[in-house]
Amino acid sequence: MGAKKWTINDIPDLTDRIVVITGGNSGLGFETAKVIAKKGANLVLACRSESRGEAARIKILEETPEAKVVIIPIDLMDLSSIKSFAENFKQNYTQLHILINNAGIMTTPYGLTKDGFESQMGTNHLGHFALTGLLLDILTCTPNSRVVVVSSLAHMGWKISFKNTLFESANSYHPMRAYARSKLANLLFAYELQRKFEINGVNSIAVAAHPGASFTNLGRHREGKFMFQLFRPLIKKVLPTPKSGALSQLRAAVDKNVKSGEFYGPSGFLQLGGSPVLVKPRKTSSNPNDAQKLWSISEELTGVKYEFKKGG
Ligand SMILES: NC(=O)c1ccc[n+]([C@@H]2O[C@H](COP(=O)([O-])OP(=O)(O)OC[C@H]3O[C@@H](n4cnc5c(N)ncnc54)[C@H](OP(=O)(O)O)[C@@H]3O)[C@@H](O)[C@H]2O)c1
To answer: Does any domain span residue 200?
Structure first.
């Protein structure tokens, strides 16, 4: 007999837990938000568009009228907005139990964030690096808090390069490679954060997850492509739903048995869908030298320095 499948019925009551989800208004973030709200948590949707955030909040309330859900705006492509989010959050809350770094963009045309970072690395990795660092004090003073980093199978598809980390030469830019690199950076960050929590005796954990593949708004920059248009109905039909894709990050966020440094993904064919289980990342994502180098670069670029207080 196989092991029992993890489902949302395994999620404990989350009353009194404070949970932040970046990009909680769409796709996997929204599906995650609905479940977490239903379990009684105080939910903060960190969204770049207040109107899209409000629309999501209304839908959550339609499903769970007693849900405790607020929106705090954040634009991960703008360090000053990330700082405002952290200040706003700390003015309203004294604890943070679960931070889910979910928001992301994929295969966008070459572009820069407000601070001049290539936009996929800027949003998917550097924005979340800065956000987590700015929330570190509140995270580490919350017993058993956790940081969930949402990566992708795409992390397997490319190498980290410290020569051209941000595709400084725009003509070297390739949308899919830039996405893959940002998703590899997500994992390098999660593992280094876990090591730093451990070294500093911090009672918080860092966990990673990937959803497999789901039809969400993430593919919007591929939608104009002829092949995508041709196969769109089929792709939509065969891909797992966002509800099912969200299970890995949900498990990483709330399963009591999850340990620091674990990586969750779907159990099915090619890890594209299925119930969430422990999965193995590509070896390059747990290379401590690359992780430390990326960490130093990220601190330098964002100006956010992680200061760990021993044991707390
Ligand atoms: N779907 C998949 O098959 C798949 C596979 C592997 C990994 N993932 C990962 O799963 C995560 C969620 O993606 P999804 O599929 O749910 O895509 P989605 O439906 O497009 O949702 C992405 C969310 O991120 C938000 N976001 C984008 N840029 C932002 C910014 N600058 N500041 C703040 N929020 C921003 C979006 O806000 P707006 O609504 O305002 O645009 C949206 O809420 C991503 O990290 C993605 O890499 C997804």
So the answer is: yes
Q: Measured from the CB, is residue 155 less than 6 Å from ligand 1?
A: no
Average the pLDDT over 118-122 and give the result: 96
Please check the confidence at residue 223 and state whether its pLDDT lies above 80: no
Residue 1 lies in a domain: no
Q: Which helix (H) or strand (E) holds 192?
A: helix 175-199
Q: CB-based contacts of 154: which residues, under 8 Å, 6+ apart?
A: 176, 179, 180, 183
Nearest CA to ligand 1 atom 3: 213
Q: Is 210 in the pocket of ligand 1 (CB under 6 A)?
A: yes
State in Å: Cα 24 to ligand 1 middle: 9
Picking from 120, 85, 106, the residue whose alpha carbon sits closest to that of residue 304 is 85
Instruction: Give the domain range for residue 240.
Output: 10-301
pLDDT digits (tens, 9 = 90+) for 44-53: 999 999 999 9
**pLDDT-based confidence at 250, cuts 50/70/90?**
very high
Task: Collect all residues with Cβ–Cβ distance below 8 Å to 152 and sequence separation of at least 6.
Answer: 179, 180, 183, 186, 210, 211
Q: Are 247 and 8 in contact (CB under 8 A)?
A: yes
Q: Is the CB of 265 under 6 A from ligand 1?
A: no
Stretch 20-38: mean pLDDT: 98
Which residue is catalytic, options 93, 110, 173, 179?
A: 179
pTM over 0.90, yes/no: yes
What CATH number has the domain bearing residue 37? Answer: 3.40.50.720
Domain-embedded: residue 3: no
Asked about 264 being catalytic, the answer comes back as no
2 belongs to a structural domain: no
So what's the pLDDT on residue 106?
95
